[in-house]
């Protein structure tokens, strides 16, 4: 038997297209060819299970080998094999997928989702790296001869009698000069571990099995222990800390999806993680760019998602827009929300201990997803500066009676830096007020969201104004200074303060408050902070200069002392000391000014 002919395609330029444009990365060729070999092995198992093949299945592993001297890579399987006629049908007619036909034929007799390939072009990825490709194959069917197919990357091929004596297929790639990087043991091993690590048939390379054909996400949760989940996490991310907990995904309607998502320990900041969620299709690695499948707020999770129903482009390298993707995204959101809710209800103490690490997911989800907000509002926690944790409803009840202003609006005070704002926190506590600790990178957006969701409630940073103005309950504090004295004091401070970004006002405050405080308008400060963390449309605020208010306590003895001092120089010296104290309380006193303040204070001692 010998035959020559032309491959049935519509353009002479198909191979340059495949080589340069179809696949984004040339290493994909090994994934495609090994996947095809696994397909062939799965098919023969299927036929045996339904009684259409009665021979000995034998060992169904796929073997990958290379010969550096001969410049070849060979992928061998003991699967279905092909006849010469099948080669003509499945190989010579590009984009006719044998897997698609097989699934259609046997869809009512088993699990068609076990068959990987659906594109028909996977085999031709071999020509991205090979100058010539040879197939040597023998069909499982009785009384059929082995066949050999050779193609040099043009549209011409040759079919002749093969020399394979047992069922299965050998595909040999004669590696092109510009792709000899793949004739390296470590390189091949890395590609197999990346793309084929969890294929359902054993993959042998250099006499070692390089994959785990039965990953735990393909098993029922009832079969698995905590140790199994932790061991698998370590297999995925060998150097990562143990996860906090995990969610096992397992749904077969209206789409097929399995997987395991792990909640890692996350620092109190948004950051790109080296370990990402891995997307598989029938245990074949596709990508770790899963932004359309997984909601954005869960992109910091780790783990695996496997779905044959996620639409991919012809090269399986990119996700395509599809209603199933949206459904899967919604499902994952609900699954995560329900898991967090169950943890909160079943073990609140344990949930509170984990919240420092999972709070970033919860808050980000509430900000970005309305449906997630509806579920998470019942277990999202806020913490006050004393370390006590509350749900949103609990905190509303906690401050309801004591922190209302004259308009009957509830005021939540918060600190973005407990250490730096301690003086303001203590002033609030003197009045019996509570202060929340909201210091994560997301909290500016979280605060805005809460104000939109919780009626008649405002959030104000504890250093945004004097405490009497932050919670204006309508009680007027009288000043001991006359209007003339107030103008005198204001003039002295304005002369001492050379920074034009700071305005001086005299306030009637309690005697036990600081002699002066420096504050920034709450709205402008919040917009500026949001612009620094990427708040949409807030860029203009980031470019605007900061403006501050220096509020001088007209009732403080130190301020009265300025009026009692006769020398103008001494008046300014006292005002300067009060002003520097106010700067110091806001961490705004630095450099030479800080040194001068320390020296003055030391002399006074």
TrEMBL record:
PROSITE patterns, alphabetized: HSP90
InterPro entries tied to this protein: HATPase_C_sf, Heat_shock_protein_90_CS, HSP90_C, Hsp90_fam, Hsp90_N, Ribosomal_Su5_D2-typ_SF
Binding, ATP: 32, 36, 77, 82, 97-98, 169, 316
Keywords: ATP-binding, Chaperone, Cytoplasm, Nucleotide-binding, Stress response
Pfam families: HATPase_c_3 (PF13589), HSP90 (PF00183)
CDD domains, alphabetized: HATPase_Hsp90-like
Molecular-function GO terms, alphabetical: ATP binding; ATP hydrolysis activity; ATP-dependent protein folding chaperone; unfolded protein binding
NCBIfam families: PRK05218.1
PANTHER family for the chain: HEAT SHOCK PROTEIN 90 FAMILY MEMBER (PTHR11528)
Annotated family: Belongs to the heat shock protein 90 family.
Protein name: Chaperone protein HtpG
